[in-house]
Amino acid sequence: MKIEELFSVQGKVALVTGGSRGIGEMIAAGFLTNGVKVYISSRKKDQCDATAARLSETYGAECISIPANLSELSGIESLVAALSEREDHLDILVNNAGVAWGAPLEEFPEVGWDKVFDTNVKGVFFLTQKLLPLLEAHATKEDPARIINIGSIDGIRTPMFDTHSYGPSKAALHTLTTQMAAKLVKRNIIANAIAPGPFPTYMLSTGIGTGGDVEGTDWDALGRGNPRKRVGTPQDIAGLAIFLSSRAGAFTVGEVIKCDGGQANS
User: Fold this and answer.
1) 3-265 belongs to which homologous superfamily?
2) What are the residues facing 94 on neighbouring strands?
3) pTM score of the predicted model
4) pLDDT tens-digit profile of 10-25?
5) Which terminus of the chain is more exposed, N or C, with fewer CB under 10 A?
6) Averaged pLDDT of the chain
7) Domain limits, the chain
């Protein structure tokens, strides 16, 4: 049982939604470094195309952009159609695309509820549903296909911010993961979820008041409040995604794994 055999993802095909920045980009980079052909998707075409080109050049690997709005069925169907034109199977689906909405409880709008649930829950369900033929195509008992849903510790604990629909949407995604896992394991598809804590992302920077300025945010200061005294790194989240996608993770089914430095337990 050599490391290379346990954790290899060489030659696999993956789709990472929300892959143009943040945690999605970190996971995509980890896959590319280790021989995976990666498709990334995000709502903004220019940013998605630019990230795919940069990742391809940086890692000398194949990263392909398929922009799509995954909060709408039409966007999901266009993504599935574009991927199906290029591939006859999919080994790894990382459902990472997600949004949040912040407003005080008394002022929280219906659009802030619907947009978050449409992307974070409905979009994951219907994208997975429509990708089942590609996921099943090469899946076997020995080497099942993998689904990794990116939840949040805010779906486990009370959120710090006034993002009243975000935590419930991630809790729903965690439950959806365990439900999917029970059904799909019989079809040689393994589903698990990762619940990240603080990572240096655009979304978190907006929550803490730096307005999306990822580079200008003092992540060290934020990390001092974490039991590990830091925020997460690309190695932390990519390593866990690689484990779940490899032979080492082939008997791990329906789990919601926290990746938060112990924050949800503190």
Assistant:
1) NAD(P)-binding Rossmann-like Domain (3.40.50.720)
2) 16, 148
3) 0.96
4) 999 999 999 999 999 9
5) N
6) 96
7) 3-265
